[in-house]
Specification:
The protein has helices at residues 7-19, 23-28, 67-74, 78-93, 101-112, and strands spanning 34-37, 47-50, 62-66. It is mainly alpha-helical. The chain has a single domain (7-110), classed as Zincin-like, CATH 3.30.2010.20. The radius of gyration is 20 Å and the shape is globular.
Amino acid sequence: MTITATPTSIEQLVGEALDRLPDWLLDILADVPVLVLHGRSQAHAYGLYHVDGAARDHALDQIVIYRDTLLRDFGHDPARLAAEVERTLRHEIFPPPRLPGRWRRRARAVRRRPRPHRRGPA
């Protein structure tokens, strides 16, 4: 497999994807930096949105796009790479709905509980 994209082209693609976002969303994300970094090929992640969590440790919100993973998986096809960069950016802004960890664990526990026998009509 030949990689045709360069690391700087990933940054350009992220910039172009940001330019295609609606203005109202760009206003909301005005203080959220978008970083393009190396380092997630081992974890198979294309991006992450780091937010100030429940601990309220006042960590800066930031979106990270991982260059090495995107280049590894899509660098051979520039059109597909551009599509995946935009998809990853939008995914980090609007993740798919899911239950928070404790609710997910609680839902699993409820599913494992034995169901009481139903009695027939009395």
